[in-house]
Input
Amino acid sequence: MLNCYSRSVLLAAGLSQILVACGGAPEGPRNVILVTLDTTRPDFFGCYGASGDLTPRLDALAQGGARFDMAISASAVTPVSHASILTGQLPYQHGLRVLAAPGGFRLPETVPTLASILGARGYTTAAIHSAFPVSRIYGFERGFDLFEDLSNVDLEQKQDGGQGWDVSRGQRRSDQTSDMAIRFLQDCDEPFFLWLHYWDPHDMVLTPDKEFMAGREPTSPADTMAFWREMYALEISYVDREFGRVLDALEEGGRDRDTLIAVISDHGEGLDDGERRHGWRAHRILYQEQVHVPLILAVPGGPRGLVVDSLVRSIDVFPTVLDYLDVAPPAGVEGLSLRPLLEGRKDAPRMAYADQINGWDANAGMVRHRPQADFLHMAMDDTYKLIYRPSFPDQSELYNYRRDPGEILDLFGREEFRATRVALLSDLAARAGWVLAPFQADGEPMSERDRAILQKLGYTGDGEAASEALWEWLCPADWTRHGDPGPCPRCGAACLPAAAGRQE
Ligand SMILES: [Zn+2]
Ligand SMILES: [Zn+2]
Output
């Protein structure tokens, strides 16, 4: 039997809960859902200008929140890019550099992630994934109470002799992924952090169900790029519908009102865009088709229908989420909270960086066809983008991606863009993103292939610098070379590695 006092306390407590649930604008997010859409380009979303109403649910989410029109990924390969989203760090900072190699493919235990930080603060943490490149193989399980990954895949022998993954295995279609997410939402404790990963547009191993495809079958001849493009669009549309069911489940429980939702891709897809110069269907290179990603943030109590055109980065998601949860970011985070931009305030312009260490990745068979893509390093300011090729410095590229979004007109060699070129090269030179030392290979004996790669990088197989190093150092300002790592002997500028003997 309750006395009057305790009854009134309970009533007051109940009343205040009801007020929180129903009254006015919510104060801020309690839960977080991070959605990563693998291989998904923004220009296939209605809200980013695509025709055909492919993505009504994501469009509505952007309408109720904020859409970022120039978000750039830190890499165009799945685990590397995801590690940057989860840590706010660039690939050379968090250490996950490649999909398959004797080393450099695992997120080190010392790097804090959204899951490790929020898990330690009492959040229920869950990951529900759709493919193996974000599995425990890469160290992504740390900090998660529930980790529904796909790690039942095996290494296979690749044509060039290395051990790589068969990426067609270990996949889950988005209807199953969403079913699992809805089950999680039905009985999880709050606050929660849920990382949902969808994979469908990556390839055509798993295609949408018959009911969805009815009346939408591609009209282009099979095995053509036009056919692939139609299927790619349909798979994005299918993910939109399936993710929509998760949104419905969230709304039914009223939890959309206190859940921050961040939607981003890890990278895009070439789809043969960019004319002859790009000529590439997939990812692993650094044109806008690959690194320009959709980013939608729906923050309870935050802006509705906001569009941000400034350059932002996938590494900015991590500090933004922590900012809204009143958690200080750990040391060493390169990303910056997007909250000022979301609140309509000015923010300092950002620089974006991305890289591809394809030359050290057994899964990057594409290097056989595109040797110029063995190592790629990208620097972007709010107007220009430079792609530096250490093995072929004179084939580096510079674009005004605002005026020339297809990156057709290469400005790298033009004298009138010298200052821009030097500034972006100097930005790269000041970083530590170069792979000139071998990754730790966990005590395994070095294979012939790995030894050959290390020799190509200027090292002998046992990790010692080769007596005749294959790398020189190139001054971004005067474009002269010298032998020792370190600043330019002429002008003191920080220098870039450049393959020796390839002076065009
Ligand atoms: Zn991916
Ligand atoms: Zn110099």
Notes: The longest strand covers residues 31-37. Residues 1-26 have pLDDT under 50 and may be disordered.
